[in-house]
Amino acid sequence: MSDSRVPRRRRFLVCEPRHFAVQYAINPWMHPDTEVDVDLAREQWQQLIRVYRAHGHDVDVVEPVRGLPDMVFAANSAVVVDGRVFGSLFHAPERRPESTHYDTWFRTAGYDVHRPGSVCEGEGDLVWTGRYMLAGTGFRTTREAHREVQEFFGHPVISLTLVDPYFYHLDTALFVLDGGRAGNIVYYPEAFSTGSREVLARLYPDAVLATRDDAMTFGLNSVSDGRHVFITPRAEALATRLADRGYVPVPVDLSEFQKAGGGIKCCTQEIR
User: Fold this and answer.
1) CA-to-CA distance for 17 and 160, rounded, in angstroms?
2) Separation between Cα atoms, residue 11 and residue 232, nearest integer Å
3) C-beta of residue 175 within 8 angstroms of C-beta of residue 127
4) Dihedral Cα 86, 50, 131, 261, nearest 10 deg
5) How far is CA 219 from CA 40, 68, 223, 231, 254, in A?
6) Cβ of 90: how many Cβ atoms within 10 Å?
7) 264, 221 in Cβ contact below 8 A?
8) What are phi and psi of 111, to 5 degrees?
9) What is the pLDDT of residue 1?
10) Which of 57, 169, 228, 267 is flagged as catalytic?
11) What one-character DSSP code corresponds to residue 88?
12) Are 173 and 187 in contact (CB under 8 A)?
């Protein structure tokens, strides 16, 4: 069955974890007394880049900046659809300077960048499905930003309310398997409000449902190219369910980044 799944070449923007650390606590995963093995983090990150390239994907790199330990989480910097860049305005003051450096990268690469007027954390809370934008709120990105995203892109935006602080970004509770009209997703239902769960069930009646164990291992912070699913090796049960659906799980261990509440998708911004 996996032969019927067709991968699509992607372009990713990433940032080396040269200055990665846990220096403050802005989500339940972070504890400032946690020691980070920076060498291991860089080794794990480099493996992710090697795996992406080995599967035919293009990878661009933004230069890390000293004093910005979370800049490695490139997904939060923007959302890009049809070559249009909607930038970020972080909730936490500690992360706000990151936006300027990512905006500079995009502008140097020839893109115009829209700066949001409301708190918005890029692909952390904005998940493009190929038809519309799924948009998370509840902990970081605001509903006002959802309206701003819809006005900017001219695509429908579907607001989803997150209710579990461990899943403070949409990309920790949901990811897209394949886009387009017949696309599908994976998600952890209990991360969402009752109404949001009903919306997802109506939109994606055939979705792959994840358990809390899957979600707590950052199994939902995955990246799919339509065939290959780049996923933490700790999400074994979820990987088995994906394989049963015809996808090819590709395990990549980013365990060091989970100390800051991040994983594969957090480290990966997609340029569409």
Assistant:
1) 30
2) 20
3) yes
4) -60
5) 20, 26, 10, 6, 11
6) 22
7) yes
8) -100, 145
9) 53
10) 169
11) -
12) yes
**Greatest CA separation for the chain:** 47
Residue among 140, 126, 125, 137 at smallest CA distance from 91: 140
Task: Report how far residue 136's alpha carbon sits from residue 159's, in angstroms, rounded to the nearest whole number.
Answer: 6
Q: Are strands 174-178 and 184-187 parallel, antiparallel or unpaired?
A: antiparallel
User: Is residue 208 within 8 Å of 240, Cβ to Cβ?
Assistant: no
Count the neighbouring beta carbons within 10 Å of the beta carbon of residue 200.
Answer: 20
Asked if 266 is an active-site residue, the reply is yes
Residue 181 near residue 168, CB atoms below 8 Å: no
Percent of the chain whose pLDDT exceeds 90: 96
Token pair recorded at residue 157:
């935006």
Query: What SS3 state is found at 24?
Result: coil
The pair of three-digit structure tokens given for residue 125, joined into one six-digit string = 């809370």
User: Tell me: the pLDDT tens digits for 209-249?
Assistant: 999 999 999 999 999 999 999 999 999 999 999 999 999 99
Task: Report CA-CA distances (Å) from 95 to 72, 182, 194, 212.
Answer: 11, 36, 31, 28
Beta-strand (E) ranges in the chain? 11-15, 58-62, 78-81, 84-87, 113-114, 126-128, 133-137, 157-161, 174-178, 184-187, 208-209, 223-224, 228-231, 248-251, 269-270
**Alpha carbons 132 and 34: distance in angstroms, whole number:** 38
Instruction: Show the low-confidence residues of the chain (pLDDT under 70).
Output: 1-2
Distance of alpha carbon 76 from alpha carbon 179, whole angstroms: 20
